[in-house]
Amino acid sequence: MIKFSENEIFLVTGGSSGLGKAIALKINELGGTVIAVARNKEKLEKIKDLSNTPQKMFFEVKDLTEDIENLPNWVLGLAQKYGKMRGLILSAGIMQMVSLRAFDVERAKQLFDINYFSDIALCKGFCNKKVVVNEGGGIVFISSISSIRGRSGVINYSASKGAIDSAVKAMAVEVARNGIRVNSILPGLVDTEMKGEVGDNIPPERLNEILNKHILGLGKPEDIANITCFLLSNNARWITGQCFVVDGGASLS
């Protein structure tokens, strides 16, 4: 059984809702200390109220698209405030439904700022020896099966997640000498707020087609939280540079 200690500190972005919320609560349930990051203070406060051990659940209000260049220093500041960290979970992100005909460079840059550039900047800060614990740590990116499955209307989104999955492999090689492992998870459609956003932007028949591809049914946030905790634990000590598809079979057809 996976257990974390109070001294194992995990930074979770997008921690106020969806997958980030589920991951933050699961780590806390397993004994770890969590720093949940999001833009909405009220939602973060509710996460603390839901926690089994609120004394080990902290939050930071932060817009990760602002001053991306300074994010590594911000992470260093968190380590000085809370202590050295064991894990970084990158769950913050946005979905953009934009056809090729409607492609706009500025909108694409905005998406990449939150889905890619801010994540890499946070990794730069986390991999500083002053931040990560001496025996190493783990980074888990929340990607998407959109990075490996073609679907119209999500060119920019798919590209941003594909960039993450490529970066995982290169980063894993670069930071292995510091004992840090890097992996990504590619969820299918999970029953979160983002599922509702997807449903609002595509025809009902197309949504049904997507849902039917999930031969094990839609995923629950806990399905992604469970594998995330495994990858952060010592049980996964020999796993790095991998992109794990967790999609209820959606990518099989």
Brief description of this entry?
InterPro entries: NAD(P)-bd_dom_sf, SDR_DHRS6-like, SDR_fam. The chain is α/β, with parallel strands linked by helices and 253 residues long.
Question: Can you offer a commentary on this structure?
Answer:
Helices cover 43% and strands 15% of the residues. The chain is globular. It has a single domain, classed as Rossmann fold (3-Layer(aba) Sandwich), CATH 3.40.50. By secondary structure, the chain is α/β, with parallel strands linked by helices. Strands 3-2-1-4-5-6-7 form a 7-stranded parallel β-sheet, sandwiched between helices. The mean pLDDT is 92.
Structural features:
7 strands; SDR_fam; 7-stranded parallel β-sheet; alpha/beta; 253 residues; Rossmann fold; oxidoreductase; oxidoreductase activity; Short-chain dehydrogenase; single chain
Spell out the helices and strands N to C.
EHEHEHEHEHEHHHE
CATH class: Alpha Beta
Question: What CATH architecture do you see?
Answer: 3-Layer(aba) Sandwich
End-to-end distance, in Å? Answer: 33 Å
List the helices and strands and how they pair.
Elements: E1 9-13, H1 18-29, E2 33-38, H2 41-50, E3 57-61, H3 71-82, E4 87-90, H4 105-126, E5 137-142, H5 155-175, E6 180-187, H6 193-201, H7 204-213, H8 221-232, E7 242-246
Parallel strand pairs: 1-2, 1-4, 2-3, 4-5, 5-6, 6-7
Helix pairs in contact: 1-8, 3-4, 4-5
